[in-house]
Each structure stands twice: as structure tokens, then as C-alpha cells.
Amino acid sequence: xxxxxxxxxxxxxxxxxxxxxxxxxxxxxxxxxxxxxxxxxxxxxxxxxxxxxxxxxxxxxxxxxxxxxxxxxxxxxxxxxxxxxxxxxxxxxxxxxxxxxxxxxxxxxxxxxxxxxxxxxxxxxxxxxxxxxxxxxxxxxxxxxxxxxxxxxxxxxxxxxxxxxxxxxxxxxxxxxxxxxxxxxxxxxxxxxxxxxxxxxxxxxxxxxxxxxxxxxxxxxxxxxxxxxxxxxxxxxxxxxxxxxxxxxxxxxxxxxxxxxxxxxxxxxxxxxxxxxxxxxxxxxxxxxxxxxxxxxxxxxxxxxxxxxxxxxxxxxxxxxxxxxxxxxxxxxxxxxxxxxxxxxxxxxxxxxxxxxxxxxxxxxxxxxxxxxxxxxxxxxxxxxxxxxxxxxxxxxxxxxxxxxxxxxxxxxxxxxxxxxxxxxxxxxxxxxxxxxxxxxxxxxxxxxxxxxxxxxxxxxxxxxxxxxxxxxxxxxxxxxxxxxxxxxxxxxxxxxxx
Length: 499
Ligand SMILES: Cc1cc2nc3c(=O)[nH]c(=O)nc-3n(C[C@H](O)[C@H](O)[C@H](O)COP(=O)(O)OP(=O)(O)OC[C@H]3O[C@@H](n4cnc5c(N)ncnc54)[C@H](O)[C@@H]3O)c2cc1C
Ligand code: SF4
Prior knowledge:
Layout: E1 6-8, E2 30-36, H1 37-41, H2 47-66, E3 71-76, H3 79-89, E4 95-98, H4 103-112, E5 115-117, H5 126-134, H6 141-152, E6 156-157, E7 160-161, H7 194-201, H8 220-234, H9 258-263, H10 268-280, H11 286-310, H12 328-331, H13 339-351, H14 356-370, H15 374-384, H16 390-401, H17 418-424, H18 445-456, H19 458-461, H20 468-475, H21 480-495
Parallel strand pairs: 1-2, 1-4, 2-3, 4-5
Antiparallel strand pairs: 6-7
Helix pairs in contact: 2-7, 6-11, 8-10, 10-11, 11-16, 13-14, 14-18, 15-16, 18-20, 18-21
The structure holds flavin-adenine dinucleotide and iron/sulfur cluster.
Iron/sulfur cluster binds near residues 338, 339, 421 and 446.
């Protein structure tokens, strides 16, 4: 029995530089980690997501042990039960945790009577974002981002932005190379060790998706290897093709670092410092460095700030009145003839990951224009992505992707027809549908549903400066009624898994 205080490390806080662990030493603290069976079985989590989370936890426990810590790693039916077992064994040890990253997690800690210290997993303390928001009429990401650049000092020359501009985004919207070239090479893949194999063998029957084959590292050393690989091989071309999609390449120049940032194996400063170093040493152009830094100190921090600002009400926003169930095309990608959906949902099934434009402009776009229930979509993405977490899912799905917040986050809905997908990908070639058609049996469902969406919500969007032209164009369509009729058929086919 020991009165040494305990630090309870949660599954997305796997770093000795996070919160309560920062000041702990093997002499001063014991460590508790709980793996809850209920949590693993509570949803149809993707196998690679479950494996990534659990295996990273078990590897981290080993790492702490090799640093000299006494770690109690408890596998229990629930978190509460795990804690009870620990308390029985160490009744006099005070337990502290780092504040969880979700509202649900914090409520649980409160119910369990666990004291928490603030988290430093983000570069912007929650209070700081709320204080910024309180002074603004509108919460534009770009304004927040510029403030972050100045505050944090990334890519700055004194008070001026490096390269003379804050934002090189306009140069980053190129379609994919049409010559079949692959300047990005193959992503890293890890060999699975005994811990990984044990985790895989114990995955619950409720888990979905394909088995892990090493796409996602489960150690800090592995996460840093991915970071180094990204900076050396992908960062120099990060940017220009950020919005592009290719059937034969699932990653392009994306970093694939979100899982490690979200479970703590990497801290945001680790990746930003590495990119700053590459820029300072002339390894990467400013457009690439800026494009990436914007994602991390801008988008990621902004989304996190909005989550704490607007939750819990925000999750239940449904301004467009969307009630359709999740299409089976997402969970059974081989069942659909829409080539773009089959490829993107297939990537999710195969690896628990799809890049931003696949998430936003194919999967999210279809859910938006078909009117899929925001919570159903949110839950599916949360369950299916290796990098899913409540704080990141809710603003990205409810706000950015499905516009269910009525425009609190994005001034216009990210709705698009087949022409956009064709311009930014090679998906349409070889598809059973014709991206140029909006009526007829072989009309592209995206094109049909896009115009139907515009017409359905014409009253809401006609005065939107970024949508008005499209609404008026829709209202002038000579075949508007035929589009509506075809849309009704398309939605029926979508609902019955025959699209
Ligand atoms: C519908 C939808 C669902 C999403 N779900 C998730 C999710 O579950 N988990 C998640 O981490 N991100 C999510 N995102 C944001 C973004 O798509 C992913 O962070 C990104 O695709 C991860 O791949 P990457 O590491 O290669 O990113 P990169 O393109 O290399 O970008 C670098 C980093 O920037 C950060 N970032 C960029 N955009 C965002 C954003 N909008 N929100 C938060 N962080 C951002 C990520 O940490 C990412 O690792 C979602 C976006 C949409 C539109
Ligand atoms: S034609 Fe339409 S459904 Fe087919 S790949 Fe293109 S956008 Fe997707």
C-alpha cells in the first residue's frame, strides 16, 4: 500500500509532456491507465482505430515502465470498475488526471471524483480562444490564424509574415497531375509487434473495417519517424495538390499525422518546430511551409476552440432539417456504383482514414446534399477514422461539412456536383454515372442532388453572397422539375442501397 499520489493517464494523453505528467517522476508518482471493455464495445469502432488507441496505450505504459515508473495498467469492464479496483489496492493514493479533451470525458472525471489539471495539448488555452471570440463580430478562421502566427512566432520575420504574405492558399488548389506521376512515394509502414498482435487478437466482434497492417505507428518513436518522413519527403510538395484526389493514391502529400497529434504521441509544437526548421534551412518553399502551419496552428486550434465555445448544444444543430439515415454506401463501399464514394469509403474501410477533401467534398458533400442526419454522419465518421475524437469531429462534421449550424462556422455550404469532383480527381473516368448529366438513369447523383439541394434550400441561400448566383441559376433551369423527380429516385436508390 502506498500513499504516493497517482496520475491517471487517459488514452489520448500519451506523452510525458502533457498536463499532470509533466512534473511527475518515478519517485514522486505512480501511474494508472484503464482500458475499458465497455468503451471498446460501445460502438462499431473501426478495427484500426481500436488497435491504434489500445496498442498506443499499452506501448506508452511500457515506455513509462522503462523510464522507471510503476504503472498499473488495468483492463476492466468499465472505467468506473477499473478505478474501483485501483482504489481498493491503493486507497490512500490521491488521483489526478489531465483534463480530458471532450465534454463527455470531463463529465466522467467529475462523476468519478477525479481532480484534473488543465491540458496543454493545444497551443491555445481554452480561455484564450474564448477571450478572442468574445471580442469579434465574426469568428473567421483567417483572422484567428494570423493572430496565432504573431502570437506563436511561426514563419514570421519580426512583425511581418515570412515570404511577405500571410496565406498562399490560392496556389494550393491545383488538380491532380494527369500524367499518372506519383511524386509522393509510398507511405511508411510499421511491422506489427507482439503488443499489436495481442491487441488485434482481442478486438471485439463489434469492430468494423479491415485489420491493421501497420499503416499507423503506435509508439512515440514511430510517430517521430512519420514526422521526419513527412518533412523530408512530402512537405516540399505539400500544398499545390492539397485539394486533389486520385484513385491510385490515398495520401498524396498529406502528412497523415493527425492520429499522433490527437492521441498525444506528437505535440503540435513538435510538428510546427520541424516545419519551421525545414523552412529556415531552405528545405521547403514558403507556400508549403505556410500551407501546413496554417492547418495546425490555424484550423486545428480553431476547431478545438469552437468545440469548447459551442458545445454541448452545437451537436444537436440541424438547421437544414436533415433526417436521412446513414447511406449503406458508406459502410459497404463495394455496394455502390458511384466510383468516388466507393473509393473514398473504401479507403476508410481499408485504413480508417481518408484525406480532407475526400472527407469534405465526397463523403460529407453527399451527406449534405442528400440530407443525411448530422448526428448519424458524425457518429459514423467518429467510429471509422483512426484520428476521430469528439472535439474534432463535431465542428468538422456538424459545422463545416453538413452546415447543420446554419452557417455559424462556414459562410457557405460545401455542396458541389460532379463537375467539381471531376475537376479535382480522376474518379469520374470509368464511373457508371455521367457527371455532366443531372437527369436520366445514368445522371451523376452528385450533379442531380446538388441542383436539388440548391432548389430545396433556395429561400435560405438566395441572399447568401457566396450562393446567390447558384440559386438563381438553379431557379432558371428549364428542367428543374425533371431534376427534382430524378433526385427523388436517386434518394430512394440511396436509401435502399442500390445507387
Ligand atoms: C467531415 C470531416 C471530418 C473530419 N474528421 C476529422 C477527425 O476525425 N480527426 C481529425 O483530426 N481531423 C478531422 N478532420 C479534419 C482533417 O480532414 C484531418 O485532420 C486531416 O485530413 C488529417 O490528415 P492529415 O494529418 O494528413 O492532414 P494534413 O492535410 O497533413 O494537415 C495537417 C494537420 O492539420 C490539422 N488539421 C487540418 N485541418 C483540420 C481541421 N479541419 N480540423 C482539425 N484539424 C485539422 C490536422 O491535425 C492534420 O494532421 C475532418 C474534416 C472533415 C471535413
Ligand atoms: S460521375 Fe458522379 S458519381 Fe461518378 S465518380 Fe463522378 S462525381 Fe462520383
